[in-house]
Amino acid sequence: MLKTYTIPITTKQITSLYYLWINNGFENEKNIDIDKKLLSGAEFESNKIKLYVYENDNTVLSSAIIVTNNKNPSFAGLGEVCTSVNSRGKGLANSLCEKIVDDYFSSDQSKAIFLGTVNPIAEKIYKSLGWQMIYNSNVMFNSKNQDDFESFLITYNKSKLPKNFSKGNSDFRLSIIPFALSLRSINQIDLNSKVNLINKSSSCLGLYNKYDSLYLKNGNWFSVSDNENRIFSIVSYLEKENKEFRIDGLFNYLYAEDAKKLVVLAIDEILKQKPNKIFIEIYKKDTSKIQIFHELGFVEKKKAQKKIDGENLEFVKFIL
After folding, report:
1. Helical segments of the chain, H only
2. Of 18, 54, 81, 108, which is least packed with CB atoms within 10 Å of its CB?
């Protein structure tokens, strides 16, 4: 029987979902984007999370989750699509995804949904349901008006709302997706969050988790955004060792002056911790990032190779 639940859900339901996910494709909890904390309602004030399942005698046979932001429900993220091995071949996941899309697009405010996948069989199924793969990524896109992602971005980025400079928070769980995907061809890597936009990325709902995890590593992140949570740049920092802090980020270079102000904000936060050193390591082809940090007084020190996702890349180290 198909059922829907709005998060938070009960501990018993969470246990049932985790049993499905870990035993039928996710392998371990690190691969789950919507974790137990979120299923228990930790982001209730920021994001609406809705669960769609097929159940039989309180056993979850198939699941899918959609997340929307309370301030800006114009787009959503779909994830945790999973069917138990014994229930596959019956079209359960197809049915859930189709139901989610129909329900979401029934709202006048809704415009688009994002979904990450690296499974070619799943990709074929999603395409039959109206999804399209975003160029140079492993993220799929579904638009109410059948626009492609680039057309969506043109409208989405027309915001003239005032910009805010703030610490990263759960309001950005969704908006980080179109932001990062809009930069996928600009040679950007944030070493602190391990977000690599050079290679094809399948990160979707998991993108926010990469930045949120910095808080557990004596790090932090900040963003330039507007009142509808559109992101224009992100700056991160991470203490590596002996009070040496690496700063980094992802930047929309159309807003370079705002990006520089954001870097200064992050540096001010680092200085409160009395650092021995503040440095950045920039991929050598990211010339615009190099220019920003030159203008902020960072001095080039040395070049070095780093292995990023199995590929040897040359980086340049700068010290403030």
Report:
1. 11-21, 36-39, 92-105, 120-128, 149-156, 176-182, 207-212, 256-271, 287-295
2. 108
pLDDT of residue 95: 94
Write the CA distances from 185 to 56, 216, 314, integer angstroms: 45, 30, 18
End-to-end CA distance of the chain: 60
CB-neighbour burial class of residue 43 (10 A; exposed 0-12, middle 13-18, buried 19+): buried
261-279: pLDDT as tens digits: 999 999 999 999 999 999 9
Contacts of 269 (CB under 8 A, 6+ apart): 220, 222, 237
Which residues are CB-neighbours of 216 under 8 A, at least 6 positions away?
none
At 201, the pLDDT band (50, 70, 90 cuts) reads: low
Residues 220-244 have a mean pLDDT of 95
d(CA 239, CA 220): 9
CA distance linking residue 25 with residue 4, whole number of Å: 22
Q: Which amino acid is at 128?
A: S
Q: Write down the pLDDT at residue 115.
A: 95
Name all domains of the chain by residue range, CATH numbers in brackets.
Answer: 2-155 (3.40.630.30), 163-319 (3.40.630.30)
